[in-house]
Every structure is written in C-alpha cells, then in structure tokens.
Amino acid sequence: MINKIKKILENSKADEYKIVETKTNSEELFLVKKDIDMTRSKEVHHFKVTVYKNFEEDGIKYKGSSSFDVHPTMNEVEINKSIEDGIFAAGFVKNEYYEISKAEDIKINNVKSNFSEGELSEWMTKLIAALYKNDNEVKGGINSAEIFLNKNYKRIIGSNGTDLSYESYDGMIEFITTWKETEEIELYKMLTFSNYDAKFISDTVKEMIFLAKERANAKDTLPSGKYNVILSGEAVKEVLSYYVDKSRAANVYNKISTLQLGDLIQGKNVKGDLINLSLDPELENSVYSAPIDDDGVPLQKVSIIEDGELKSYHGDLRYSYYLKTKATGDIKNFVIEPGSKSLEDMKKEPYVELATFSDFQMDSITGDFGGEIRLGWYFDGKTTTKITGGSLNGNIANIHGDFYLSKELQSGDGFSGPKAIEMFQLTIAGK
C-alpha cells in the first residue's frame, strides 16, 4: 500500500510530500470492581499524507501544506483523488517558506520496553494483578477500571529520501476509586506507561485510595484569604509546563511568548529555587518517548533552561527554521531538576497543601493557574485539618521569583520533576 501511495505522489504535482505510516495492535480490558466485564483486541493501520506546494506571490515565498488520511481499503482512483484535492488545498495556504528535513544516513532504535518480551495478551493478567494488589480496604477501593496496551509501529517516508521506522509500546489504565463514609465520593486517575512496572501501578492505586478516604472525611472549607501553599501531585506538572510552552519556538514566533535567548525567566533577584528544564526523548516509562519526530528529525536530550536562563528554544523544523535556530524536533517529555527543600522542611511553618482539584488549569499565555479544590490539608502551626471546597488562584509570573521546588521527585505522563512546589501568599477563595 505504501508503495502505491508513494508512486502516485511521485507522479503528482506535489513539490514535496511526507507519509507517516502507523500500525497499532491493541489489547483492551474493562473491569467493574474486580470482575472482567469485557475484553477486546484490535489492529489498526493508518497512513497520514502531507503534500507541500512551494509558490511565490508579490516576491514573497510560501510553502503551503495539506494533510489527509489514506485508508488501507482505498483504491488507486480514490488515493489519487485525495492527493489531488490535497495539492489543490495546499496552494491556498500561505505559510512562510521553510525547508523540510533532509535525509540522514542514521540508524534509529526501537523504544526500549519489557512489553516486547511476550504477547500483549499475556501482559494483561500481570497488569490486573498490579492494579488490584493494594485494593484491600473495606470502605473503598477501585470501582471500575479500563486497561489498554498497544504495540506501535511507525514509519516516516519523505520525498527528500527519508525512510525511518521504529517500534514502541504504550499502556494506559483509567480507574475510579471510591470511598464511603456518610456519603460516597469518587476520584478519577489516568495512568500512562511504556514499561511493566508493578510497583509504580500498585503504589499509585494505594495513593488514590488514601486520597479518596481523606476526601470522604474532608468537611471544612478555608476562609477566603492569602495562604502559603504547597502544591503537590498532578498540578505540579501543569504549573511547570509553563516553562515548556514559553520556550517553544512556535509560541515565540507567533508572539505568544516574548522570551529571548539569554533571558532570566524568573528575574534577577530570585529568592527561591531556579528552574532547570530539559527535554528528554528517552524518558523512562513515558508513552511519549521516541527516537524521531513526525518530520523524521532525530531526537536527543536537550537543555532548555539552566539556572533560570533560557539557553535554547525547542520545536519542529518549521518554526525552528523561522527563528534561525537548530531544530530540536518535537520532544514531548520534559524534566525539571529537583529543588532545595524537602517536603518536611516545607511543612515546618503553617501551610495549605493542595493535592487534588476538580479542574486544575494552567494558562501559559497569561501565567494564570488555579482550580476548584477537592482535597487539601491546612496546618495552622498546631493541628492539621482536612479541607475541601473553595478555589486556588495565582499567577506564576508573580511568584516564581520566590518559590521552592521539593527535593522529592515524581514521574508520570511524560514528566519527571519535583513532587511539590512551595508558594507564598496565594489567594484561596473559600467560605
């Protein structure tokens, strides 16, 4: 099929083209409590074609592009029609001109995964065992779960001679934990992984059951006011993704970010911890790890921010070309180095620790972040109280000159970094 697509493209009026072929073999399993409700196996084959047209108007060079799917069931007439329509559409897209990747004589490796050591179906039993290992409480536990495990093959073919391929594995578990006291509450968790790590899965379940229990027993809402806040859990990744977005080449080119190379992104007189950010295409146990991106650019670990100073932009070929910087490629994993304070040190003075939110959001354009509080703990210097309700509001640009990152680390969903952030005098809207 791919040779058929390639032959039609080479005889078309496209100036350049790219084909991304993906094959995915999947095992899916659905559970209610600890009982298997349904299982399913799938095999999916996709071809994503991009055609380019280079043209000039009023002395300005453009590169138009159009992307579309070619299905394995399509015949030559249907494929040819899709390509012609794509080329026609590309002629109306006035993207500033840029050069696509050049073919490189390189060898790339498959993404390392222990799931390669057997059939997918054999691993599902092990995943179930890891998921329910710590589900042994009377008043709560896993109410329902869905497990997905995929074997992926990706091949990138370009008109420039690029022809690279690799295999990878990715898994996802979605589960809901419940706890019942006077009323029943639910907490949702999505877990992604590319290796079988039983402890990682079972420890996550244990933590979620604990949080569900704490949430069920949390009744108090804080009075509105300013508090020293320790942000922990998934919200930490969302806040720190601000620095990834601000240093992205596409955002700089489109004026969404005003950062320039050499800028001290936290200011000159930082009282707290400095940000050290890198992108790592080989981050362990991440579903986003890959040796190349969809343009065929080989990916390597790259340092973006060092001690608060922006050292490099990051991004795909197009926007890196516009900024006249070397393309790092599209790397989706990011790493933030640990800070100077332990969680124990952060908790020596009165604090509010916030662990789960109904809907935590980070606006990388404005720097605003916040969400509705589902569970937290308030320490007034003597006693600790479980809290729920109210909302947190802050702006990272106002506080990152004086915040602290924890020495303790967390990892998951393409992120490795501090487990908590200590921030001062943040606004909580409460009762």
TrEMBL record:
List, alphabetically, the SUPFAM superfamilies matched. Putative modulator of DNA gyrase, PmbA/TldD (SSF111283)
**Which Pfam families does UniProt cross-reference here?**
PmbA_TldD_3rd (PF19289)
Q: Where is the Metalloprotease TldD/E C-terminal domain?
A: 224-421
Q: Name one GO cellular component term.
A: cytosol
Write the signal peptide boundaries. none
- Which InterPro entries does the UniProt record give? Metalloprtase-TldD/E_C, PmbA, TldD/PmbA_sf
Q: Which GO terms describe its biological process?
A: proteolysis
GO molecular function terms noted in the UniProt entry: metallopeptidase activity
Q: What is this protein called?
A: Putative modulator of DNA gyrase
* Top-level taxonomy: Bacteria, Bacillati, Bacillota, Clostridia, Eubacteriales
